[in-house]
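Q: Joint fold for the lines below.
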Amino acid sequence: MSLFVTINNIDKIFSIPGGDDYIALKGINLEIKKGEFVSLIGHSGCGKSTLLNMIAGLDLPTEGIITLEGQKVKDPGPDKMVIFQNYSLLPWLTVHQNISLAVDEVMKGTNSSEREALVEEYINLVGLRHAIDKLPKELSGGMKQRVAIARALAIRPKLLLLDEPFGALDALTRGNLQEQLMRICDEYHVTSVMVTHDVDEAVLLSDRIVMLTNGPGSKIWGTLEVDIPRPRRRMEVVTHPSYYSLRSEIIYFLNQQKWVKKLRARKVSNLARHGLEKVNLELGYVPLTACAPVVIAKEKGFFVKHGLDEVNLVRETSWRGVVDGIVGNYLDAAQMPAGMPTWLTTGGYQESPLPVVSALTMTRNGNGVTLSKTLYEKGVYTASDFRQLLLDSVGKSHTLGMVHPSSMHNLLLRYWLAANDIDPDNDLNLKTIPPAQMVADLKAGTIDGYCVGEPWNLRAAVEGVGFTIATDLEIWQGHPGKVLGVREDWALQYPNTHIALVKALLEACQYCADPKNEQEIREILSGRSYLSTSIEYIQLGDPNQYSCNLNNSVEYAHHLFFGENVNRPSRTEHLWMMTQMARWGEIPFPRNWVEILERVCRVGVFGTAARELGIEVNYQRQPIALFDGSKFNADDPMSYLMNAKIHRNFTVAEVHLDGQRLSAA
Amino acid sequence: MIPLSSSNRRNRSKSLDKFIENFLPPIIGIFSFLILWQIFSIIGLIKLPPPTSLWTDERTRNYLLYPFFDRGGTDVGLFWQAFASLQRVLIGYTFAAIVGINVGIIIGLNSFWNKALDPLFQFLRTVPPLAWVPLALAALQQNQPAALFVIFVTAVWPILINTAVGVQQIPQDYINVKRVLQLAPRKFFIKILIPSALPYIFTGLRIAIGLAWLAIIAAEIIMSGIVGIGFFIWDSYQNNYISDIILALVYIGAIGLILDKLMAFIQTLIVRE
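A: Joint structure:
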């Protein structure tokens, strides 16, 4: 397929009364292939209709260039036919006259009987034979839009542009028209661009979905390929494995944009009280059993006790939401997977280093590797069985899910696979999936297993769709799970708030570790505003109460929330995670790893918080012992990395961090 | 048959109710007015002859009974007087419509000319018809063309301005259709511009016919020696035939009313909504 429409670095600036300029679109680049159906999606006012009008030539970009088949778009014309939201039929002309007005004008070269045949053909195509001599006012909204579609298609445009074509229609009519449009587009290979704010419509119709951020200065946030095969049917696409991940991706985007808009609109940004620089905090988390300390600190009043009067918990469905919140600076702090602070600091996110610090490890353990029941039935009980299965089924791809490149799940899963002679990238695929979606994907058969935190391993077992093949006990007993992460510049700006936050969460961790509170915590966590799941899936204590396996019970490593060497941030652990992320090519291994560790691990903040709470901290530096018996020497990470049996081509580079350095605590 | 007749009766009483409801009040109003006038006139409170003088005054009664006589010159029946005035109105009004619609379209489509001419039009629009009469006479030297000019200059503004607005108000959707289809100007004109501006044009035409009728009476009063109902009034005044004037006023009012209703009727025929 060749490039058909190119949109090259488009800016659109409107001058508004009063002499100001409004930047509607900024730096838009998009290429559309022949025969492709592209949707533009975004909140109202994001400039998507403006972009469409510029492609149509109805409006001109302030900067940049749009070409159609190599020709610059300067004027509107019938080769770029538009279907408007309000149909734009001429009310004094009948259905037939409306269409023939277009056909007669555009197809001047042909004789009148040919043109008449064309008009008739397209009226029949949209099923309006019976209404051919009616005026638009006698037609329903759906029929009017069908006339508009017939008018647009009858002149055989190179490019069809649709501006929220079904926005004003009822759901039933919309569905029917979508299918008709799809059928016609498939049949005539029409290249189309559609503006919409309907997520399902976008997924159903498009080959590609372009997401535009809110104005001013809208830009393309991301593009999704829709890999659902054609011809598609409305009732069938929903069963396609990609459907929900695409849908959730778009909804994530739309929600995030709404959130950003709300934050922009908020005036009060900083409340200082009780000697703390900021007491109104947005704290991000992902609903997992491991979020207990965060939820408990809120519900049991530990935040308020330490002066943080207005802590707002922001539930994200995926770790990406946390990353966007921290990078976009609209979350003050977040519960993060253990590897995320170093991952962000060393430029794991879009290769731009963002210093993030951690002063508290909130949980350890609580993870497991689940494989599907199908594999269990094929006799896969151990890692070596799994390896054998992969060797036996060359050519058939297997996919395992994990939640984020920087999460312990990814690192442990890869380590476990590699230690069992399975190359995690070449022998199978690893896919990033939000935790809450794992079980659904496992059920649907789109993945063969996953590594994720509770309650999702347990849930797969309870629902009988998968079994736990390995737990923390078998990989790294006592590994860090979730940590508290804040931006370094935030930590510098609000040092006392940072300490108060660590104190509140540390105390919450202590509360969570007390078996007396187990039942209460389970009840709170299972509530609608948090995990919103059955209480039986949330287990904190006695591992013998339930089984994660399909037949025989496996011993299970429960979440550790509090205890000796549990909460203090450990440089050794963060270093190990950096070596693993570098091993798999997620980040370059920083030559200045000592500096990075000093900046990421805020041991001093933790120490102050613990001391003020009266908690005694006895720290002993210990080497990390993993299940395969190899010891990690924190003094020589490079040779550890070099000696890894399976690894990607990793790079070693100096990571330059700007910003003020805090004196090592 | 009994139920039918009873329903008939009910229908009849219903239509009677309706008649009483709709027509009785205006009839009472008009009669009260005429009776009051009659009384005031008889007791000498006003110097006008009473309404009954249309009949009691022999001269007026002749005008009332014989509207079609023609004794040559300006001595013709009231029908011919009114007809002559109406003719003038229609000629002047037709010119005004042609010029007003065309210039209105040009101005509506062209923002430069709109800006250039709008102040001038706004200024001229406010000049009263009567003020044009001396100028028209001075410029054209003859009564007939001068009268036509006065009608023209009175009627043209509402047509012109309404047409211009109608053209400017063509919905952006239709303009987009034109741009996307690259419609030829002639087709755009016929298929989009005229149908879209038609309601506005007709509003202008309806306002203009009323104004034109007002203007002709005023103009004829000043123009001596022509057949026309305006001059008839003036002539009667000069001769102190006050009851003739009253009769002529009835004619003028009736014709004005008919013209307005006629335009309204044409409007509903042409402008389908």
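Q: Anything notable?
A: Chain A has 25 helices and 24 strands. The interface with chain B takes residues 56, 58, 75-78, 80-82, 84, 86, 88, 90, 92-93, 101-102, 105-106, 155 of chain A (CB under 8 Å).
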